[in-house]
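Check the record.
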Amino acid sequence: MGPAGSLPVSVHGPVGVLDLLVPPGTTGADLAGEYAARAGLPSIPLIYTRVGEPVSPDASLASAGVDAGDLVIATTSVPRPGTPAGEPDAPPTPSPPGPAAVLWCAVAVAAAALAGWSAAHADSGLTRAATVGVLLFAALLGVVPLGRYAAHRAQAAPAFAAAAAFIVVWDPDPARLPMVAGLTGLAGAVAAAIARAAGEELDEGLRTWIVAGSMVFVTTGAAALLGLGPSVAWSVLLVVGVLASRLVPGLAVDVPDQLLVDLERLAVTAWSARDLPRGRRRRAVASRQAVDVVVARGARIVTAAGVAIAVVAVVSAQMLLATATADLDQIGARCQVLAAGAALLLAGRSYRHAGARVALRSAGLGCWVVLAVAVLPESAPERTATLAGVAIGLASLLVVVAVAAGRGWRSAWWARRAEVAEALGAAVTVAALFVATGFCRTVWELTSNVGF
């Protein structure tokens, strides 16, 4: 026990936390010398308050605003001095590209897709060759890591390479369309790999290009090697898209080990009877800048993955409904597209990033629009009546959802129901795979031809 009026303080320094009981009127120099003597420091440290204000060596702790039980900081580092007078200032750092660069990138990708589709259906061979040359030149410029917008150009470069490959390998035969999609995805993956090797900034979108393109190529190539029909490849790709929407958040949340906080080491501000740490291990603190980097990286991953899932799901749903021609296969294909759309719509609620939610919900609505176009009758009056009925049904559903949202759609009760519905949609999507691909029909035909 110290004399009456003694001031207990905790000094956090290079070797750990030291609790001291100092007499009244102790100055900053006295406290720094006592800490240096007890901690065995070769030099006298500087003393700062818990909010970072320096404590003058001649001023008392009380005048510096240090109360009983407060934490003070002892550091041997010297603050960085300002720029000396007469020296030229450092050149200003250019500001990073804003949302307009992202919009420009999206417009470039859309233009590449439109050019590839139009040139593939052109009758003139000269037009196709010229378009391929222009697209390849644009892809080559995109992978060059020069300029302020190099990272954004690299995100669009695989789209130009994929469009050029689409023109070269285009074949309208439905049996060859899966391989056309596979080769197109492979070209985009190769261009993304080249762009990622050339530059290291903002490579999350390029990784998504590589994974998505390789996945499409492997799926369609395996179906072609095994002699399976085109509906098998499209159905498998649709299932992969639905399952990927549930796996992407877990892959995006990748926090480095050095940013993980040990809760047992957080209580360093409280006055207690801790002994002086014997080791020289310092406590790591996660800076705000490091946390912002991790959050931005995860946002880019989920956004790029959401766009890739939307493209693969909508294209696969359209081609699956077009290639499943048998009656039983059509039923399975329509059930699979319906369940996949519901699963993708509900999967968007688990994403906290607006871009990813919009992409997944657009994918779900795209699947339903494709299904609605496929089931509508061919005659104009019947098509109009059916479309009006579907519109009225969707409007009623939106009213129910709006009321539910106003009463607490994000409550635990609604969250449980949505989770069950999403899991059920994914399960139906996987189960309908065997019907949509003709597996059940083949087994039925084999067993019906065998006499008992």
Q: What stands out?
A: The two ends are 99 Å apart (CA to CA). Confidence is low (pLDDT under 50) at residues 80-91, 262-284.
